[in-house]
Amino acid sequence: MPEAPLKSFLKRKPRRKFDPLGSGFDIDQANALGFQRGPQGHLQSRNPLTGQILKGIKHPTFDLALETDRKLGFLPYQDRQTGAIFTFKKNPDPNRFILFKRSHKK
């Protein structure tokens, strides 16, 4: 992971509060990372520097984002403290993350 972009990203202060358990999208992270909308008007769902999913778990396309990551070899984990969802190819720190399993469909 490149150190300079990560440090630059972490120094930025969000303008809006993102709720990882809600239905929103962390537009501040997307903007800070310089994400551009694709042909269908969508932004990337995952922060490539941290692995964080930028959609709340109630976002209409949250499950699609996780499925796309699974196809790329990433597994979803939930931050024990913040509730935020991350995807990683390798097992992360078990003191911070637990494997994310949706308890029910929306």
Give a verbal description of the structure.
Helices cover 24% and strands 11% of the residues. It has 106 residues and is an alpha+beta fold. It has one domain (3-35, 45-97). A three-stranded antiparallel sheet has the order 2-1-3. The longest helix is centred in the middle third of the chain and has 10 residues, at 62-71. The termini are far apart.
Task: List the topology elements.
Elements (H helix, E strand, L loop, with lengths): L2 H9 L15 H6 L29 H10 L3 E5 L5 E4 L8 E3 L7
Antiparallel strand pairs: 1-2, 1-3
Question: How do the helices and strands follow one another from N- to C-terminus?
Answer: HHHEEE
Integer-rounded radius of gyration: 13 Å
How do the strands line up in the largest sheet? 2-1-3
Largest sheet features: 3 strands, antiparallel
What distance separates the N and C termini?
Answer: 34 Å
The structural domain count equals: 1
What percentage of amino acids are in beta strands?
5-15%
Task: Describe the structure using short key phrases.
three-stranded antiparallel β-sheet, 106 residues, 24% helix
